Amino acid sequence: MKKLFAGTAVLLLIMLGLAVCGPVGEKSVSLTVIYGAAAILSLLLLIGYFCLKLRRDPWFILLFSSVLVVNVGYFCLAVSSTLSEALLANRISYLGSVLLPMSMFLVILNVTGTRYPRYLPWVLMGVCVPVFFVAASPGYLDIYYKEVSFAVVNSVAVLVKVYGPWHFLYLFYLFAYFAAMAAVIAHAAAVKAIDTTLHAVILAMAGLTNLGVWLIEQLVNIEFEMLSISYIISELFLLSVHLVIHENRQLKERARQTEQAGPPRPVAAPPADEEAQSDDSEALLRALADLTPRERALFDAYMAGDSTKDIMAAMHITENTLKFHSRNLYGKLAVTSRKQMESRYRSVYAPGRQG
User: Fold this and answer.
1) CA 198 to CA 292: how far, in whole Å?
2) In whole angstroms, what is the distance from residue 1 CA to residue 114 CA?
3) Residue 352 region, left (φ>0) first, then alpha (ψ -120 to 50), else beta?
4) What residues in the chain have per-residue pLDDT under 70?
5) Residue 118 burial (10 A CB sphere; 0-12, 13-18, 19+)
6) Per-residue pLDDT at 190
7) What is the pTM of this model?
8) Among positive and negative, which fits the CA dihedral 298, 302, 303, 306?
9) Can you say whether residue 353 is alpha, beta or left, with left for phi > 0 and alpha for psi between -120 and 50 degrees?
10) Which helix (H) or strand (E) holds 160?
11) H helices within the chain, ranges in order?
12) 153 has which bridge partners?
């Protein structure tokens, strides 16, 4: 997952560089390429989410799908050749844009562990549908755009719009969702449902970044739709916080289970050298008590005979992270390998021996 984030960050920087710093004569070509690249990147991120070894969250799937639909709409609009094609592409982008704040809000509810009634998603969808139909009305009604025409600026298709009386509806829709997101994040931070203040700030940035970009685009004439990139950044913010919080909750649960279980109880056995055996037992007990929750979970997995692949999947870690924790574990237990660790443990706590 780290490689996915790193690759995405590099691609986003390249796309921003092309959009902002490209030569004037090549800017139109760059914008079309950037819209296409954003759509492809959105698709890859959606596929990447399905590759994560996590329980699938339907609202994350909707979020990633919404960003993909938005960017496909932007690209189709840029390459349109007629007004009807441009309006259709505009409707596609609005479909994703209307679903996106709803999915983002539900993702934040789940990430922060905030409880909500089961019917809430259906209520939100009921609000989403009429907002979409109003935003998709240009070409049929003049309520969202009073006037709309087709133009090609530097080989890039654009819609020249005069906003209608109902255009405020979409603005109110966005503000309502972002206000709700801010309220949920603030409440979760107040009741310590979020581990750190940094996580709360990142969650807030995921929503406020899009709102800020959207407001800038309304006030400043910018050729490039910056939302195509800010949406991708937001979904990465949300996914990264989700993964960190998920891992922390797992660690806390494992630590709680370890505390409840207590240290392993040795079965009395008459060793060849009783004094040496007693010293080894006490040393091992002290070493086990000194393990971190992650190291103890790894130790238990080794003792249970789990394979390396199963351990990485269960603990959601990479092979390098597993090696790092294994080295620390071996050092604390004064062994050099998994085999030696198992041998030492069973020599002290050998099941089946009689006292």
Assistant:
1) 23
2) 26
3) left
4) 1-30, 53-54, 195-199, 207, 211-224, 246-281, 348-355
5) exposed
6) 84
7) 0.65
8) positive
9) beta
10) strand 156-163
11) 2-21, 27-51, 58-78, 83-111, 120-135, 168-190, 197-219, 227-261, 274-289, 293-303, 308-315, 319-333, 338-348
12) 156
* Among 298, 308, 301, 306, residue whose Cα is nearest residue 330: 298
β-strand partners of 141: 138
Considering only CA atoms, give the Rg of the chain. 28
Residue 211 vs residues 47, 216, 306: alpha-carbon distances, Å: 26, 9, 47
Q: What is the pLDDT, as a whole number, of residue 219?
A: 65
**What are the distances in angstroms from CA 220 to CA 213, 217, 350?**
10, 5, 74
Q: Residue 334: left if φ>0, alpha if ψ -120 to 50, beta else—which one?
A: left
Question: Which amino acid belongs to residue 177?
Answer: Y
Instruction: Work out the burial of residue 107: count CB atoms within 10 Å of its CB; fewer than 13 is exposed, 13-18 middle, 19 or more buried.
Output: buried
Residue 174: closest CA among 99, 232, 109: 99
Instruction: Say what the pLDDT of residue 34 is.
Output: 83
Q: What is the pLDDT of residue 9?
A: 46
With the C-alpha atoms ordered 241, 243, 249, 254, is the resulting torsion angle positive or negative?
negative
- CB-hemisphere CA count at 13 Å for 127? 17
Distance CA 281, CA 292 (A): 19
